[in-house]
């Protein structure tokens, strides 16, 4: 056995390591089950373990000397299956960890310093209520309702409480044509439908949230029907709306001592103030598609080197000519197939000199899949408007962009990976050469990075032109390919290209239908899921939609990597036969840009 001080320390971002012999702790189990990922052990925990090791040193001295050469760290079987089984018989020699130390360990894991910033962490009040099986009362801040109008029905069997100040702030934000104002009006209509034909006594006791047909919402809607006051720390202004909501939460805790009262707010400062005065507060993360952006679908899978050994039995192969391109198809069967998705890219690059495999999954039926080899766009003979793929991921992306059967394409990647250049080149080739589409429509969210410079003069296209600088830069690269045309020829080409590219604003997209268009949505990470739905549903017959973005650069308030509209569509469209996704990994802008992205 190892001494406690020699136990392996957890690393940031990795799963917690727990001893087999340790008695399970409910709070630590909550952390391991996905509520939060603990960071490295704190100084206090290491000090407590060293103290325990010193107290137990005489008991373990002899066994440690004998077992040390063949001992292995004790970990949970899922964390490290290669743990040596010889360590198990030595467990009785270790004195059991005291309950007091376990409480101290759990307390350190739940301390403010140990919680990751982005992980949706439940408050201790919520965790205790979950373990006891009791329903909770969630007090909603106004920003939650304005962020997600359907949030009233997202709390399952728990009750929802609306303070009077929340209703007052909803009324203040209902005017205007912004997304926030529309959400506020939608919440007001929903509340009006819930309280319709309800007696005053029913409002006092709670209105069933399933009244409008939302079967998942099994709790009740509670309103603040009387003035409640609870003492808050001196110095907090009493007239401020946030402080009044905090006072309501404190009063509810006093009135309903047996229930868990939890404040839900998208305002970080509001949650900090609540926790500072001892009130449980949580973020609203029901709209998060993924809790960890590293789990986002990449669209690419590397096959093992022994793929043909395990999947090559009874393999079928044939060739077909589609859209003027000849491709080879393989029908393979094996244990890896059920983990793949339609239109997912697979590749295998053997190190023993064998030819590599680059293919796309076209069809899956149980443990059998049909793989289609790709067209090599890295070769100059297959260039797209003078552009060739510089790496594997760009070749995958061009196969999606040039495939007329693929109606929806999402490209993720950091700055300089070639998202915009590839999209424009594919659009120009299919609009001006093959005439598959009649024009390119470009749009993006007008969210400034810095200080807003005010209103812009001109027409809709002139107002949008400053936001489209990235497309102008890429058009210059694409129009330089024809060097023998002369000045007049290049000017005519530029006029022709610009006549086929239309720049539109998102504000006027509702109600439109695009037919035979090549629609490019740039900076799509700044769109909410609702805005993304509005745009994607504009597609008419023969329209192809491209969503480009980098989820690490989100400028829209209240949007995170997990709740972005781009993350939403990538996760929902994966596996669709007419959609595809590629995450571009390597930057190809310049060596300066690549070095800056690594060191800055």
UniProtKB/TrEMBL annotation:
One of its GO terms (molecular function) is ATP binding. It comes from the Bacteria. GO terms for cellular component: cytosol. Keywords: ATP-binding, Nucleotide-binding. Residues 136-272 form the PIN domain. The keyword Nucleotide-binding applies. Gene3D superfamilies: 5'-nuclease, P-loop containing nucleotide triphosphate hydrolases. Residues 53-96 have a biased composition (Low complexity). Residues 1-128 are annotated as: Disordered. Residues 1-12, 100-110 have a biased composition (Basic and acidic residues). SUPFAM superfamilies: P-loop containing nucleoside triphosphate hydrolases (SSF52540), PIN domain-like (SSF88723). InterPro entries: P-loop_NTPase, PhoH, PhoH2-like, PIN-like_dom_sf, PIN_dom. In the N-terminal section; belongs to the PINc/VapC protein family. PANTHER family: PIN DOMAIN-CONTAINING PROTEIN, PROTEIN PHOH. This is PhoH-like ATPase. It comes from Massilia aurea.
């Amino acid at each position: 056995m190892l001494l406690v001080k020699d136990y392996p320390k957890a690393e940031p971002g990795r799963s917690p390591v727990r001893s087999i012999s340790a008695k399970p702790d409910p709070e630590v189990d909550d952390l391991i089950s996905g509520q939060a990922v603990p960071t490295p052990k704190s100084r206090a925990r290491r000090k407590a373990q060293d103290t325990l090791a010193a107290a137990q040193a005489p008991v373990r001295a002899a066994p440690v000397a004998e077992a040390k050469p063949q001992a292995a760290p004790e970990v949970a079987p899922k964390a490290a299956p290669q743990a040596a089984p010889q360590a198990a018989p030595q467990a009785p020699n270790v004195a059991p960890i005291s309950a007091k130390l376990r409480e101290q360990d759990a307390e350190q894991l739940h301390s403010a310093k140990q919680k990751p910033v982005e992980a949706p962490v439940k408050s201790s009040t919520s965790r205790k209520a979950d373990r006891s099986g009791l329903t909770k009362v969630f007090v909603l801040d106004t920003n939650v309702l304005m962020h997600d109008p359907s949030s009233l029905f997202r709390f399952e069997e728990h009750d929802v409480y609306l303070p009077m100040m929340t209703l007052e702030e909803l009324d203040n934000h209902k005017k205007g044509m912004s997304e926030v104002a529309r959400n506020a009006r939608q919440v007001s209509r929903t509340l009006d439908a819930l309280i319709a034909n309800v007696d005053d006594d029913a409002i006092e006791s709670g209105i069933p949230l399933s009244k409008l047909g939302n079967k998942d919402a099994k709790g009740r809607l509670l309103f603040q029907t009387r003035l409640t006051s609870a003492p808050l720390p001196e110095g907090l202004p009493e007239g401020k709306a946030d402080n009044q909501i905090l006072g309501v939460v404190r009063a509810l805790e006093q009135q309903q001592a047996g229930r868990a009262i939890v404040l839900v707010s998208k305002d970080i400062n509001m949650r900090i103030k609540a926790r500072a005065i001892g009130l449980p507060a949580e973020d609203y993360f029901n709209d998060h598609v993924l809790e960890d952006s590293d789990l986002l679908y990449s669209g690419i899978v590397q096959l093992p080197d022994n793929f043909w050994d395990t999947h090559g039995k009874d393999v079928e192969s044939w060739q077909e000519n589609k859209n003027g391109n000849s491709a080879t198809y393989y029908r393979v069967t094996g244990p890896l197939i059920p983990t793949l998705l339609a239109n997912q890219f697979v590749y295998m690059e053997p190190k023993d000199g064998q030819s590599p495999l680059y293919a796309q999954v076209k069809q899956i039926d149980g443990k059998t899949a049909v793989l289609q080899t790709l067209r090599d766009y890295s070769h100059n003979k297959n260039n797209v408007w003078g552009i060739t793929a510089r790496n594997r991921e760009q070749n995958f992306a061009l196969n999606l962009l040039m495939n007329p059967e693929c109606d929806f394409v999402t490209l993720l990647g950091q700055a300089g990976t070639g998202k915009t250049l590839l999209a424009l080149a594919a659009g120009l080739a299919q609009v001006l050469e093959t005439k598959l589409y009649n024009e390119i429509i470009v749009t993006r969210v007008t969210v400034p990075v810095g200080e807003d410079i005010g209103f812009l003069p001109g027409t809709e296209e002139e107002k949008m032109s400053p936001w489209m600088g990235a497309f102008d830069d890429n058009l210059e690269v694409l129009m330089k390919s024809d060097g023998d045309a002369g000045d007049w020829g290049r000017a005519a080409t530029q006029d022709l290209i610009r006549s086929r590219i239309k720049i539109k604003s998102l504000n006027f997209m509702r109600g439109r239908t695009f037919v035979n268009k090549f629609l490019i949505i740039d900076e799509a990470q700044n769109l909410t899921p609702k805005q993304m739905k509005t745009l994607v549903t504009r597609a008419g017959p023969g329209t192809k939609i491209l969503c480009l973005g980098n989820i690490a650069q989100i400028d829209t308030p209240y949007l995170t990597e997990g709740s972005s509209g781009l993350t939403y569509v990538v996760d929902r469209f994966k596996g669709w036969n007419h959609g595809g996704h590629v995450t571009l990994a390597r930057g190809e802008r310049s060596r300066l840009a690549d070095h800056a992205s690594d060191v800055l």
